Amino acid sequence: MEPDNLLFTEEHEWLDADGSEGTVGITKYAAEQLGDIVFVELPEIGEVFSKGDTFGTIESVKAVSDLYMPVGGEIIEINEDLENAPELVNSSPYEDGWMVKIEITDEEQLTDLMDNKAYEVYLKEQE
Amino acid sequence: MKYLPNCGEELQKMLETIGVDNIEELFRSIPEELRLTKPLNLPEPKSEMEVLAGLKHIASKNKTASDSAFFLGAGAYNHYIPTVVSSLISRAEFYTAYTPYQPELSQGTLQALFEYQTMISQLTEMEVANSSLYDGASATAEAVLMTDRIQRKKNKVIVSDGLHPEYIETLETYLHNLPLEVVKVSLTDKEGETDLDALEGAVDEETAAVLVQSPNFFGVIEPLDAVSEICKKSGALFVTTVAEIYSLGLLRGPGAFDADIVVGEAQSLGNRMNYGGPYLGFIASRDKYKRQLPGRLVGMTEDNRGQRGFVITLATREQHIRREKATSNICTNEALCATMAAIHMAALGEEGVREVADTCYSKAEYAKDKLVSIDKVSLVYSGSSFNEFTIDIGKSGIDVIESLAEKNIIAGFPLVYHYPDRENQILVTFTEMNSKADIDNFAKELEGVL
Amino acid sequence: MTKGRNGLSFYEDLIFERSREGAVGYSLPPLDVPKKDPSKTIDSKCLRKDKIGLPSVSEIDVVRHFTRLSLWNYAIDYGIYPLGSCTMKYNPKINEVTASLEGFADTHPYQPYSITQGNLELMYRLEEALAEITGFDRVSLHPAAGAHGELLGMLLIRRYLEEQGNPRSKVLIPDSAHGTNPASAAICGYKAVELKSNKQGRLDLKDLEKALDDEVAALMLTNPNTLGVFERNIKQICRMVHEAGGQVYMDGANMNALMGITRPGNAGVDVLHLNLHKTFSTPHGGGGPGAGPVAVAKHLSPYIPKPVIEKNDKGEYYLDYNPEKSIGRIRSFNSNFGVLVKAYTYILTNGAKGLKKISEHAVLNANYIRARLKDHYHLPYEAETLHEVVFNDKRQEENGVTTLDIAKRLQDYGYHPPTVYFPLIVHGALMIEPTETESKDELDGFADAMIKIAEEAKEHPDKCKNAPTRPVVGRLDEVKAARNPVLRWTPQEED
C-alpha cells in the first residue's frame, strides 16, 4: 500500500499537498515498469503548467515516459539530486526521488485525485 | 540459382513440414485480383561472367579521377586512401554485419565507431560526436533541428551564403513544413567572407542559430572567432559546417572558437567519391547538448565479467523508442563509411593527416600562382583558402571544362550550375593527388583554351 | 549439438592506447611543389598548433587492430541473421566487385555529363527496373536510407496536397509500424494518429473509417505488415483513403515477400519506399550505408527531388537540376550511387525469374520456421504469414525467462537473435525473418537451438538468465552507459 498522505493520478504520479504547495513524483509501480532510471528531464523554476500538461520526461535504457502534472501549478523547486543520481527514483520513489515542488493554482483540482486505497484498486485493474 | 540453397528433396521435406503441396499455396493470403499474371518485364538472369562484363562495359563509358588530371571538389574530394582501408573493410565481419543492437555480437563495429567518434571530436575540437549521419547536407538540416530543440521558442536561423548551396537547399526542404525561418546573409564582394556587419544586423533574440561554413563553398576561410562573438552577444547557437574535413588537419577545429555544433562531410577520410555517395555526414557538439544529438551514439561500459565493452547508448532519443518525438527519424546510417574513416585516420595518424593537409595547401597555393598568372584568369575572392578557390576565366565555365575534359583534365566545377550569374567562374580544387606536372599542364592547357 | 563453440579471440586496446611516438602507417610521395608556410596567407589564430590527438601507429598495428576487432563481430558470412523486417540476406560478392570498379567509384558527381554516361545509364536503368518491380511511374534514387525515403515520400504527399488546396494535418499510422514512420511524419509537420490492428493483426477497417476525415493527409502502411501478414484489403483501403482526399504511403521494407508476385502500385498505393540494403542484397555494413529509393504514382512524379535523371532525343543521359515543381532536395549530390551499383548488379544477376523465386523462397523459409517452432513458442496472431513470423515469450515467461534471455542464450548456440520487442503491439515479441538465402540445414540448426532453449527455460532457466557466455563479452551494463555516458576516449580516461 502506498503512503496514506499522498494523492495519485492515473498516469502514476503522486502529489503530497501541503496547503497551497505540493511535491510531485512517480509511484513505485511506475518506476518498476520503467526499470533502472537513467535520466530525468525536469522543467525550469517559474514555468507554469495546467493539470495534465507534460512537465518533463523520465528515461530508462529502453523506454521513455512523459511526466504529467497532477494539478495545475507553478514550478517553485526542482530536485537537482536527480541529475547525478536518477536511480533515487528507483530506490526511494516517495522520498529522495521527488521531482518538483509546485505552487498549486487551484486546490479544488485535488478532489479529482485518488487516495492510496483508490490507487491500489486502480493498480489491480491494470493487471 | 546460386543464391537459393533449397531445392529438390529438401524443398519437398520443407513443404511437408509446413503442410502444403507447393510454394504457391503459401501465397493464398494475397487476393487473386492482386496477383501478377505475367512475369516482370526484366531481362533473363545473367551469369556472373555476363554481369561482370556488362557492368565493366557501362563503367568504361566514364572518365575518372584515376585516368584524368583531377581538379574537382566542391563538396566531394579526391584524396589518397591507403591500401589498408579497402583491405580491412572488405572483411565480411565489417561489411556484412548488422546494426549493433546485440552488442555482445558486435564489439568490433562498436569499438571502431567509438574510435571514429573520438577522432571526429579531436578534429573538430568538440566534446562529443555521433557515429554518422547520411551526408554533410542532411547533417546540416539535422543540426538546425537540434538547435530548435535546444532553443525551443526561437524560430529563426541565419545562414551564410557561404554554405554549400546543396546544404542550403537541403535545409530549406527539411524546414519547409516547420515553423522555422531561414534568413540568409551574403558574402563580402572582395574577400568572399560572410558579411559580419550584415550578420550582426540580422541576428536578434529570435535567432536560434547562426550557420557559417569554413572553408566556405567558394574556398574562403571564414573569421569564425568574429562570428562566435556575434552569437555569444545574442544567445544564438554557433553552428559551423565543414565540407572538406581535411582542412581541419591544418586549421583549428571550430570548437576552438566556441562552436556549439559542428557538422559536415567526412567523405575525404577513407571514402571514394562514388559519384555522390554513400558519403559520411558527421555531427559534433558540446557535451551538455548530447541528449539532443540525432543518430546513434556508441558509449563505453562494462560487461558482467568486468571487461570493457561498448554499446549503443542514449537510445531513448532515437525513433525506435521515441517515435514521433525522436531527435531524428534516422535509422540506417553510414556506419561502414565511418569505420573506413577510422581505419583511414589510424593509418595516416597524427603525422599523416597533418602532412596531407599541408600538402593540399601547398599544392593549391602553387596552382593559384600559376593560374592567376594566366592573362584572362583572375581570383574572384581575396580571402585566404585551404585547397579550393574560385577563379574567373572570362569565358563560359561549362564550355572550358568540357573542352579540357576531352584532354583528360577535369578542371573544376562551373559555378553557373548553382549560381546563374557566375557563368565565367569555376571552383578549382587541389589535393595531394595532383602532381606538379599535372598542375603545370592544367595551367598550360587552360591558357590554350582561353 | 550447438553451432556455437569456444574459440581463441584476442583482447584489443583502443587504437589510441596503441599509439607510439614516431610510429608511421602511411607513405606519401615527397612534395614536388614549393612548401608554403600557411601563416603567409592564413591568420595564425586559425592555424592548428597543438596536436589533433590522432594515434601514431605503424601499418602492422592498423592491420592487427582492426582485424582483431573484426573477429568480435557476427556477420552474415558466419550464419543466419533471422531479424524480422531487416531482410538480412546473403550479400553477393560480385556486388562488391562491380561497386569498386574504378569506372564507378572514382567518379565525382559534378563531372560533365559527357564523361559520366555510364553512371547515368546505370541509374536510369535501375529506376526502370525498380519501377517495373513495384508498379509505379517514376522512382527517385535520391534517399540515403529507408527512413530518408519515408521523409521524401511524406514531403511529396504534402506538396501534392498543398497544390490541391490543403496540406491537411494528420497522418494515420498503424500501431504495428516501425518507429521511423511517425518520426518521418513529424518532420513534415504532421501529427501522427495511431490506428489499432485487429485480432488478425491486420488494419481494422472500421477504425480506419472512423479515423478518416478531411484533416487526414495520408495513411502510412507496411505491407506485408510487421507481423508478416498481407493486408488483403489493400485495394479497399486505398480507395477509402482516396475518397477521403488522402494519399497512401507504403513502407516497402517487406518487399522481399512480393517480388514478381504482386505490385503495390497496382493496388492503388501512391508512394512507396524500398530498402536496397534489405530486399536488394546490398550489405548492411554494421548499420549502413543503405539506400531508400522512392517509387511514385504519376500524380506525384512532378515533385520528385533534384537532380532528376533524364534522357534526351539523342539518347544521351543528363541530370536535370531544375525540374519545375520539385520539392527540392534532402541530400547533397544525387544518391548513394555506390549502393545503387550493388542493387543493379543483383537485379541483372537474377532477372525477373530469379526475383520471383527469391520471394517464393523467402516465404517458404519463414513458413518452415513457423511450422518448426509453433509448438514451442506462443504465436500471438493466427493469420497466415508470408516472409516473417512473430512469436513471443508468453510460455517461457511462466518460468521467468524473457525474450531478452532467449535472445542472449541463442548467441551461445551460435546464432544471431531475431528482432526483439518489436512490433510494439506484441508483448515480448520475437520477430523472425530467415530470408531465402538460408539452407534447410541452417534453418534446422536455428530452430533446434530455439527448441532447446524453450526446454532450458523450463528445466534450467538460469542458463538463459546468465547468457551469453560464449561471445567475447557478456551482458553489458547499459544502465551505466546511459547514466554516465562515455562517448569518446580522452587521454587520461581510465575505464
**Spatial ordering of strands, largest sheet of chain B:** 2-8-7-6-5-3-4
* Mean pLDDT reading of chain B: 96
CATH class of the largest domain in chain B: Alpha Beta
- Rg of chain B is 25 Å
CATH architecture of the largest domain in chain B: 3-Layer(aba) Sandwich
Order of helices and strands of chain A: EEEHEEEEEHHEH
Poorly predicted regions of chain A are none
Distance between the termini of chain A: 16 Å
Query: What is the global morphology of chain B?
Result: globular
How much helical structure, as a percent, in the residues of chain B? 25-40%
Tell me what the CATH architecture of chain A is.
Beta Barrel
Shape of chain A: globular
Please provide the ordered H/E string of secondary-structure elements of chain B. Answer: HHEHHHEHEHEHEHEEEEEHHEEHEEEH
The total domain count of chain B is 2
Radius of gyration of chain A: 13 Å
The proportion of residues forming helix of chain A, as a percent range, comes to 10-25%
Fold and architecture overview:
The complex is a heterotrimer of chains A (127), B (450) and C (495). Chain A is an alpha+beta fold and 127 residues long. In chain A, 20% of the residues lie in helices and 35% in strands. Chain A is built from 4 helices and 9 strands. Chain A has helices at 28-34, 81-84, 88-91, 116-126, and strands spanning 7-8, 13-18, 21-26, 37-41, 48-49, 54-60, 64-68, 73-78, 100-104. Chain A is globular, with a radius of gyration of 13 Å. The mean pLDDT of chain A is 94. Chain B folds into 2 domains: 69-80 and 350-449, Aspartate Aminotransferase, domain 1; 83-344, Type I PLP-dependent aspartate aminotransferase-like (Major domain) (Aspartate Aminotransferase, domain 2, 3-Layer(aba) Sandwich). In chain B, the strands form 4 sheets. Chain B has a 7-stranded mixed β-sheet with strand order 2-8-7-6-5-3-4, with helices on both faces. The N and C termini of chain B lie far apart (57 Å). Chain C folds into 3 domains: 15-70, no CATH class; 94-348, Type I PLP-dependent aspartate aminotransferase-like (Major domain) (Aspartate Aminotransferase, domain 2, 3-Layer(aba) Sandwich); 353-480, Aspartate Aminotransferase, domain 1. Chain C is 34% helix and 10% strand. In chain C, the strands form 3 sheets. Chain C has a 7-stranded mixed β-sheet with strand order 1-7-6-5-4-2-3, sandwiched between helices. The mean pLDDT of chain C is 96. The A-B interface holds A 39, 41, 59-64 and B 291, 315-316, 321-322.
